[in-house]
Amino acid sequence: MENQSKKEVMLERMKEKKQEVRVVRRIVFVIALILLLIIGIAGFRAYHFVSAALKPVDPDSEKVIDITVPIGSNLDSISELLEENGLVKDARVYKYYVKFNNQAEFQAGNYGLQPSMTLDEITESLKTGKVYREPLFTITFPEGLTIEEIAERVIAKKTKYTAEEFLAKMKDKEYIEELMAEHPELLKEDILDEDVRYPLEGYLYPATYPFYEEDPSMTLIVEQMLDATESNVMQYKAVLDDMEKSPHWLLTFASLLEEEATAQSDRQTIASVFYNRLEKDMPLQTDPTVIYAMGEHKKRLFNKDYEFEHPYSTYQNKGLPPGPIASPGLASIQAVIDPAKTDYEYFLADSTGKNHFAKTYEEHLKNKEKHIGN
Questions:
Q1: Strand bridging mode 208-211 / 137-140
Q2: Which ranges of 261-326 does DSSP label H, i.e. alpha helix?
Q3: pTM of the full predicted structure?
Q4: What distance in Å separates the CA atoms of residue 209 and residue 270, rounded to the nearest whole number?
Q5: CA atoms in the 13 A half-sphere facing the CB of 339
Q6: Which residues make up the annotated site Important for catalytic activity (predicted)?
Q7: 73: helix, coil or strand?
Q8: CA distances in angstroms from 151 to 47, 187, 218, listed in the order given
Q9: Potential cystine with 64: which of 105, 112, 190, 324 (Cβ 3.0-4.6 Å)?
Q10: Is residue 129 a contact partner of residue 109, using CB atoms and an 8 Å limit?
Q11: Residue that wins the pLDDT comparison between 62 and 205
């Protein structure tokens, strides 16, 4: 009897276990089914969303929307511009569509686009540069100019404003703060440092700008240049974040290269020299900072000039100056981001402008004797 009782208990337990297994299997099956349904619904919605985003915003629209693609714009900013103006349904979908189709090289300018246009038609327009209206005139701002040189050589000659009016605007704190509010990622508090001569020094991007009014306002001119700087600098935001550096640091560093170098290879090599000197806590000792500090247009510096004490002088102070000393172009900006890998710590330019590099001070002195003399 006792053995039979044990068998009955064991059989009962086995039945219970089988029942538990059946319940677990049912639960797993239901969960799997629910997950498949969720994935299916999500996939269907995603497909529907993307399919809709690939179609024209309004196929029947005859409206023409004027947009301006600033010089130096990247795909992200152009995609967002199109969505903001109701020309594409989703900036992200458009961006991936362009990448998937290997389209690039969009041209800056003013465009008259329609919500009825397909993504292919919009892309082709931006690639070919077919503008809706031609500019009345253009203004070219060369690379490497200071704000004072921009005022004298460009503003005073190409616009209705005097150099004095432009420089006054560049020191207008209220105006600068307005721009800081409009460009919070680019214009930080460091441009208001008491040692910085002009808050926007180095931030006015050198390029040729189209204008569609006979007398463009000073603010329009400045804001176009700032937009171009923002497009060219903020494409490296992730890199700067990794380096724990700011746009101000980047433009300051790049401005030194702009004033010292001519060829792209020189920019990258000079950048390596500056990095090496900064790493070893050596003063950069770059002549353009002394010239900028003195506020004079000097072709040659003398020994007494190197003793001139000023926050911008990299002979009297270690590290970078308080701010940019000129407007750097994209080549100089890229050289800071991607410098050459060298052990050079010195360089000098001969009478032809060619730079000669050295790893030691002794080699530098030999270069000086050979290429410059006493």
A1: antiparallel
A2: 264-279, 287-294, 303-306
A3: 0.69
A4: 30
A5: 17
A6: 260
A7: coil
A8: 54, 21, 11
A9: 112
A10: yes
A11: 205
